[in-house]
Design a protein that fits this description.
There is one protein chain. The protein is of the alpha+beta class. It contains 6 helices and 10 strands, in the order E-E-H-H-H-E-E-E-E-E-E-H-H-E-E-H. A hairpin with a 4-residue loop joins strand 6 and strand 7. Pathway: Purine metabolism; urate degradation; (S)-allantoin from urate: step 1/3. Catalyzes the oxidation of uric acid to 5-hydroxyisourate, which is further processed to form (S)-allantoin.
């Protein structure tokens, strides 16, 4: 049991310059005894209102240096404060506020919400067990207008899809990775580096791009680049919900439409997912 959608804004000041962190937290506990479920005995139950207040107090006292560290703080507090807690899990996601810039100069106290992917993390721990940390990015929507195709696929009497060697690749990404046991990582730096890997693997070089023969291959390229450049990541899961675009037939309007006007096919949409990890992690 626990408390979901604990939303708050943490404001931090350094002189005249101000910093913001708006987050949503879910904190769940499992107790050493199920007596509240089986017997209606609430003597060990920590009220969810208390859980909410603890999260707010931790934000006030510790600040939020990174989402991961804040999730770790929540786990550590419940494990060290309440002997009846057998398991704790904290989920934290961030509202994507970015500092405003004017003529390249950062504003000291104004921000803009930019929907270019939502950062999130999870931390979980069993009593007498290691603290495990996950992180990720969701609702990251990317598009490239060429350098994507889909050919040579299996065909039977139910196949109506034509082969395409030049199509739009557009999709919404969900990426989640595991650090394994918690260590003293620079979580902010690692998250930014992984996001850069995702963008690079998706788009390819800026002057020529990178051909994608399938959505599945693009997903794998993202995972391989992250694992090759970020040794702290042990396992990475990528889900791509892709949006198809159809070229509008304008022959009846007396026009030739050479992939200049397209309409999105919102439902049904395609999806592919893959989880990739290091051999040493799975052997362990």
């Amino acid at each position: 049991y626990g408390k979901n959608t604990i939303k708050f804004l943490r404001l931090h000041k350094e002189g005249k310059k101000q910093f913001v962190k708006e987050v949503e937290v879910c904190a769940h506990l499992r107790l050493t005894s199920p007596q509240e479920y089986l017997e209606g005995n609430n003597s060990l139950v920590i009220p969810t209102d208390t859980i909410k207040n603890i999260v707010l107090v931790l934000a006030k006292k510790n600040g939020i240096s990174s989402l991961e560290q804040f999730a770790i703080d929540i786990c550590n507090h419940f494990m060290t404060t309440f002997c009846q807690v057998a398991y704790v899990k904290a989920y934290v996601q961030e509202v994507p506020w970015q500092r405003l810039h004017e003529d390249g100069v950062p504003h000291i106290h104004s921000f803009i919400c930019v929907p270019d992917g939502i950062r999130f993390c999870e931390a979980e721990q069993c009593r007498n067990g290691p603290l495990i940390v996950f992180a990720g990015i969701k609702d990251l929507k990317l598009m490239k207008t060429t350098q994507s195709g889909f050919e040579g696929f299996y065909k039977n009497e139910h196949t109506t899809l034509p082969e395409r060697h030049d199509r739009i690749l557009c999709g919404e990404f969900f990426c989640k990775w595991s650090y394994g046991e918690c260590k003293d990582f620079d979580f902010n730096c690692i998250w930014k580096k992984i996001r850069e890997c995702i963008l690079e693997a998706f788009a390819g070089p800026p002057d020529c791009g990178e051909y994608s023969p399938s959505y599945q291959k693009t997903v794998n390229c993202i995972q391989m680049l992250v694992l090759s450049r970020v040794p702290q990541v042990q396992v990475i899961e990528v889900v791509l919900n892709n949006t198809f675009y159809n070229v509008v037939d304008m022959k009846n309007l007396g026009l030739t439409n050479d992939k200049e006007v397209l309409v999105p096919v919102e439902t049904p949409y395609g999806s592919c997912a893959c989880t990739l990890g290091r051999k040493t992690f799975f052997e362990a």
